[in-house]
Structure formats: C-alpha cells, structure tokens
Amino acid sequence: MNYLYAKTTQVQREELELDEVEATLALR
Question: Which domain of life is it from (predicted)?
Fold first, then answer.
C-alpha cells in the first residue's frame, strides 16, 4: 500500500512539473 501511494504521488509530482514547464513556455 505504501509503495502504491508513493508511486502515485511521484506520478502526480511529475505531472505538476510538466504543467509548470508548459506554463513557462506559454509565457515566452
């Protein structure tokens, strides 16, 4: 259960980072 939770949060963090990159590119 802990492993699954950690894996889920890792994916969510990666998606958030991608959103930040896309937002930064859109501002340029």
Answer: Bacteria
User: Tell me: the pLDDT tens digits for 1-28?
Assistant: 688 888 888 999 999 999 999 999 998 7
Tally of structural domains, the chain: 1
Angle (CA) 19-21-15 rounded to 5° is: 35
Which residue range forms the structural domain that includes residue 27?
1-28
Residue 15 token pair: 């998606």
- Distance between CA atoms of 13 and 19, rounded to whole angstroms? 10
Q: Which pTM value belongs to this model?
A: 0.52
